[in-house]
Write a structure and sequence with these properties.
Blueprint lengths: L1 E7 L8 E7 L18 E7 L16 E7 H5 L4 E2 L1 H4 L1 E3 L6 E4 L5 E5 L8 E9 L2 E4 L4 E2 L1 H4 L4 E4 L6 E15 L2 E15 L4 E8 L5 H5 L2 E11 L5 E10 L18 E6 L7 E4 L15 E3 L5 E4 L9 E4 L13 H5 L5 E9 L2 E7 L16 E6 L4 E4 L17 E3 L2 E6 L6 E7 L5 E7 L6 E5 L1
Parallel strand pairs: 5-30
Antiparallel strand pairs: 1-2, 3-4, 3-31, 4-6, 7-8, 8-9, 9-10, 9-11, 12-13, 13-14, 14-15, 16-17, 17-18, 18-19, 20-21, 21-22, 23-24, 24-25, 25-26, 27-28, 28-29, 29-30
Length: 452
Amino acid sequence: MKFTSLNYLASIGLLVSTLSIMSCKDSAVEIVPPTTNPDGRWITVAGAVMGTSATSKPGDGNGGTKLFSVSAKDAKDFNFTIDPFTNGVEMKSNRTARLQTSEDGNVLFNIAYAGENGGEFSRFKINGGNSFVQEDVTVNISQYATTAPRWVKLFDGDKTGVAVNVADVKPVTEGTTYKYSRGRSTVLALDLQNVLIKNYKQYEIPLSAEEEAKGYYISRLDAPVLNKAGNKLIIGFASGKHDPKTGAGDKNPYPALSSKSVVVDYPSLENPKVISSTISNGSTNGYRSFNAFLGNDGMIYQATQRDDKGSHILRIGQNNEYDNSYVFSLDAALKVKGSYIECWRYVGDGIAYVLYTHDGASASKFDANQQQSYAARVDLNAKTATKLDLPDDVDVYYFQHQGIAVDGDDVYLTYAPVGKEGRIYVINRKTGEVKPGAKLANKPGNHYIGTF
């Protein structure tokens, strides 16, 4: 690996910008000048590169993240081609970078995930093309949240990002009697504008005495969301289980816990409390994208994964408790079995777009563990879902997908099979009309992970 700085000047007819990237190539990436942007914001397209180890598989994304930004006009242009894998800039990260952009689409935020820069937060000015100008100031949060934190940007006017982590889960015994297992949970608030740590708290978060006696514990935190009052963070989580007889991981079949979240005071990050749903037993931490959103009605909507009755979208009221009178089953809405929400985005007025797979979906020819993914428009008020009419390909899967950009009434969805070209599809937020936009070029083993 080497650190490459690319500089180009602009005067009359000549562009000026400084680009700092982490490149795994011996030669520098050719600068692609930004196109004219009449739209006032950029649409950043992200692609994940296949790993280079002997065990790498197409679509694993372990070779890093490539970015390229275009105007909304170009993103909608059927005759325009976007090729981040040839012309894009590589974002610093040992594996797939965890990306966020400002609300106006003109600033990129990144926390490097694992590796020598793991936990380093940085900001980039987006100038279009592969021009991402890194600010001089960075902050590393690894000593608090490890080198592989999960994080999202709050919808608070680009003021705050929240990183979370669970580490050092250990069984606790009294003599030879198993008591419980807990890890050290970290919740850390980042000042996105001044690039500094605003606050952090670390604590052990217990489950109920009955659940802990059976060996259950919080194994992962992710996907924080700020409530309407601005005084609580709701944080999704997944649970694990130790065998109380041995203190080791439980290898026997066991029932999943009900879906849960951690609620902490904001901005103090104090007083962690676990809340539980009676609707679902799925995890609420998501994977690499937002998994919960504040709706226009003041309620929080949160997706579940690994639910034995298929994914649900749960509702959390303004009292910061689950509303167990609200039942939205994606299985029921789409008339499928074993649905699994891989990524989703609330777009306003009770409407959301969901990327999902389900039982019986064809397995990719590259990886038998990856099933074909689909996209659907969801009405959270009517509790209905409609599958989008997009090209059918067994090698489209969204398990690593991170971003679905929304600009006004336009929703931008990358849709391309692993290793094959695809397109950006532009969806009207209100009507659901789908139009094919720019072509997405590709390379063997690579895939697209979103728009920002």
